[in-house]
Amino acid sequence: MEVWRLARVLSRTLCLNKSTCGAVLVTSPFLSGGTTVLQGITSRSYSSTGPAVTESTALVYRRHGDPSQVVQLETRKLPELEAKSVLVKILASPINPADINMIQGTWRTASVFNEGDLVTVPNDISVLSAATLGVNPCTAFRMLSDFESLVAGDTVIQNAANSGVGQAVIQIAAAKGVHTINVVRDRPDLQQLTDRLSAMGATYVIKEEMLRKPEIKDIFKVCPRPKLALNGVGGKSATELLRHLQTGGTMVTYGGMAKQPVTVPVSALIFKDVKVRGFWVTQWKRDNKHNDEALRFMLDELCTLIGAGKLSAPSCTEVGMKDFHKALDNAMKPYISSKQILVM
Ligand SMILES: NC(=O)c1ccc[n+]([C@@H]2O[C@H](COP(=O)([O-])OP(=O)(O)OC[C@H]3O[C@@H](n4cnc5c(N)ncnc54)[C@H](OP(=O)(O)O)[C@@H]3O)[C@@H](O)[C@H]2O)c1
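# NAP complex -> structure
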């Protein structure tokens, strides 16, 4: 059965509707904000025939530093199972920038969770979609829902448009009929990247430099100025996004890849009354810890888009856990345009 191939919980049965679930996501706000883990469930009969699992292979670190130097593969004993524990086999997990920044060491082959920290997702979505669902698409979904009320025909502008978050923004916005102006850094294979983002539904793909050119006004003859700007970069890039917002529009900062502060032009505040906001999906999950409906609604919406072929996983490179050095190195390289996914 597909669900068993996807993943196996090795210890006990969860009372969940098997027809609608085949994998579960860890939602604990206390776990890494940057790592989504795909797991599946199985029945007691399966677990009784499988070997007892008492250990997990994990990538861990004991000091800060260059991730590929300080992270090592270790075998760790799993904790004893308690009444509401679920022992979960983990199949795939992305390396996100937040993991690189913190080196949180949450990549492992199996783990024990409280059943209250797990939510199900349908078993017909791909491993890559499920493994990447909990962070980037959720971030994109929230930013498109919680700051401006967007309707078909509106426009969103974003930088780092080829990031995992950016690709989810493009697809979720396109499904709503919302135009996206997608800003990327120049690179030798720009046309290839532009074609890929356009195929996902990007309305425009432009280079950072274009933000400062008068030609950008041509875009606003075709679609309205953006109500919402999404900033994953900071520095000059963020300031340029702000300049193109419509009066009263909002810029949401969710990342700072350029490691430079955001400067807000005085004129944007006085004459355009723009709103400058921030978003952190981990905080959203904490705030909504007891609001199962909000999380369920978001995951259902995202999984429906995935099922309809409207939301694909970001461009990925699957790397075996043993090759984690290579994956960590690649995750830190610029212009790579491919999310590194550790496959357990
Ligand atoms: N606040 C939240 O809740 C939340 C949630 C998820 C992610 N994030 C943050 O969002 C950002 C993107 O995450 P992700 O997982 O989507 O990333 P990702 O898929 O790994 O992509 C990284 C992106 O950053 C761009 N980039 C790297 N260095 C840059 C620089 N110096 N200047 C401009 N762009 C640069 C890359 O562009 P090139 O291809 O040009 O290198 C690429 O578009 C990160 O800062 C992450 O921590 C925040």
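# post-check
The radius of gyration is 21 Å.
The pocket of NAP is lined by residues 96-98, 135-136, 139, 160, 162-165, 185, 232-233, 254-258, 279-281, 334-335, 337, 339 (CB under 6 Å).
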